């Protein structure tokens, strides 16, 4: 039986479950949905993280060359940012139940997130890359993940620190977006990497939520609506490109779509909570329902892949073993 490897990109499952759980918590506040389902999603997110971090650590022990290759790959290395981002989301999952224990978990994830983001920023300056490698995963190390960091900082009450993080993530988003969008328009994406577009949707939706959390009652209505409008516009584009996106066969990377859609729902629900109109509340409800359907569909697809033994990629065979 071939050994299996866990790519860092698989932590997208943890992010998708955790964000859907966060969306359910807001839905409970807004529409009085039973809270148990949201907490169950958070528990599943935490469980997936424990399993995945153990498998990822095993990769470093048993397949060190593959692990090193991932950290040096100009595209795959970006997905390592999902690990500290997962830690931050686990801290948010813990916060209502164990607030004192959640704070050090947040700070651990926050610190590693910033250190890794700075390291990748330096690499982006100093290491040449092909145009085909300028793809949406570049948003992960110091844009989308740092905006999640900012959001969580606001939830824990570290508002000034959160605004500093928001500056890092939002300005990086504006800088990177033109390069990535240019490459998408001129170079496109291969069939097997179309799910990268789930990552493309992350910065605007996380910025929408992070801004509202940090600004609180002082949130500017014009800026909030501008962020919401762009986020909805991006998802409208993804919906209209669904035939193109579906040319990629189902893969674990489809979990990236769940994170963005769940976060969009949160942003719209926060706006509805703050009295921005009944139409927005209806749109928020539709997005939340779509999130649940998407999570159910991706979960079913993942179970089918697991049953066929095709979920995890096979580990490379060592030359000595191949010779034998």
Instruction: Give the count of helical stretches.
Output: 14
- Helix/strand-derived class? mainly alpha
CATH fold name = Glycosyltransferase
Let me know the average pLDDT. Answer: 94
- The total of beta strands comes to 0
| Overall 3D form | globular
Question: How is the secondary structure organized here?
Answer:
Elements: H1 12-31, H2 36-62, H3 64-72, H4 82-94, H5 99-126, H6 139-155, H7 159-186, H8 197-200, H9 202-215, H10 221-240, H11 242-245, H12 255-273, H13 278-307, H14 319-323
Protein described:
It is a single chain. With 324 residues, the chain is mainly α. The protein contains 14 helices and no strands. It has one domain (8-315): Glycosyltransferase (Alpha/alpha barrel), CATH 1.50.10.150. The longest helix has 30 residues, at 278-307. It is globular, with a radius of gyration of 19 Å. The mean pLDDT is 94.
């Amino acid at each position: 039986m071939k050994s299996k490897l866990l790519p860092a990109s698989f932590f997208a499952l943890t992010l998708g479950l955790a964000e859907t759980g966060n969306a359910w918590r807001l839905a409970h506040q807004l529409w009085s949905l039973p809270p148990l389902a949201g907490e169950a999603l958070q528990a599943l997110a935490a469980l997936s993280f424990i399993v995945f971090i153990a498998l990822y650590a095993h990769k470093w022990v048993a397949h060190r060359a593959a692990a090193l290759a991932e950290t040096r790959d100009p595209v795959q290395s970006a997905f390592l940012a999902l690990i500290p981002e997962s830690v931050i989301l686990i801290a948010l999952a813990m916060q209502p139940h164990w607030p004192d224990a959640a704070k050090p978990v947040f700070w651990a994830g926050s610190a590693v997130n910033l250190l890794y983001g700075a390291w990748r920023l330096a690499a982006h300056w100093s290491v040449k890359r092909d145009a085909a490698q300028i793809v949406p995963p570049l948003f992960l190390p110091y844009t989308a993940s740092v905006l999640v960091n900012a959001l969580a900082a606001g939830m824990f009450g570290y508002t000034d620190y959160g605004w500093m993080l928001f500056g890092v993530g939002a300005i990086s988003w504006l800088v990177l977006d033109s390069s990535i969008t240019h490459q998408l328009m001129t170079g496109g994406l291969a069939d097997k990497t179309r799910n990268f577009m789930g990552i493309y949707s992350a910065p605007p939706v996380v910025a929408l939520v992070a801004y509202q959390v940090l600004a609180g009652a002082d949130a500017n209505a014009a800026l909030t609506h501008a962020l919401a409008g762009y986020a909805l516009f991006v998802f409208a584009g993804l919906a209209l490109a669904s035939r193109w996106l579906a040319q990629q066969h189902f893969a674990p990377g489809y979990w990236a779509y769940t994170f963005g859609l769940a976060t969009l729902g949160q942003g719209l629900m926060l706006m509805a909570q703050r009295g921005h109109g009944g139409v927005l509340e209806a749109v928020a409800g539709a997005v939340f329902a779509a999130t649940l359907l998407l999570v159910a569909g991706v979960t079913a697809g993942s179970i089918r892949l697991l049953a066929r033994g095709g979920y995890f990629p096979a580990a490379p065979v060592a030359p000595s073993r191949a010779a034998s």
